[in-house]
User: What shape does this take?
Amino acid sequence: MRVLLGGGSVDDLAAAYAAPRTPWLRVNMVSSVDGAATGDSGKSGSINNDADKVVFDLLRSLADAVVVGAGTLRTEGYGPIDGKPLVAVSRGGTVPPLLRSAPRGSVLMATCSSAEGLDEARSLLGSEHVIVAGESSVDLAGVVAALHDRGLVHLLSEGGPSLLSALLTAGLVDELDATVVPRLVGGPGPRIVTGPPVDVPLTLHLLLEQDGTLLGRWLT
Assistant: This one.
C-alpha cells in the first residue's frame, strides 16, 4: 500500500497505524538509504527529518509506554516523556543522567537481579518502578509481561539497534516501523539492528512517501 504522507488527515494517519490487537509491540527506527542508523553525530536525530517526525510523534501518542535501551537513552539525551512512562532497559541498572531526577512514575527501569545499579535505581525511581527480570541479563519476555500486568499493553520501542536485535531474537516484535531518509551517510555507524545474526521474515503492511522519505510499516 502506498500513500502520500501529506495527502490525508491526522485521523487518517492514526487509522493507518492502528494496532490490530493488544497486546502489541512495535519498534520505530530510522536509517539512511545506505543503511546507517545515525549520522556523523552518532545520533539518529542527525538523519531524521520532518516526515519521520510526524510518524514518530504519532506512534508515541498511540503507545501506552515507550521502551528504550539505556545506551540509546544516554546517547540521544532522552528526558521523561509527557503523559506516559519511559521504560529504560539496562543490564547494569544505571539510571541515565537526564532521568535521575524525573518525577516518580514517569520512568521505569527494567533490569536484572545482578545489576550493579539496582539499589540506586530503586532509590532514585522508587522500588515499585523497577522491574527485575532475569538474573545475569535482562529477560525481555519477562519485562514485557510485567508491563502488560501494569496495563501497558501497547508498547513502542525506539531501539536502539542492540535492543531491537534482542527483541527480535526473543520473538517479541509484532511490528517494525522503518523510515528511510533520502541521504547517503557512509562511515562505520550502526545499522538499525546490531548484534548476532537474525532472520525475521516481514510483511509490508503500509508504505508512505513524502519528498523522497519512505516510511514503512512491516509486520512480523
Residues 66-152 form one domain.
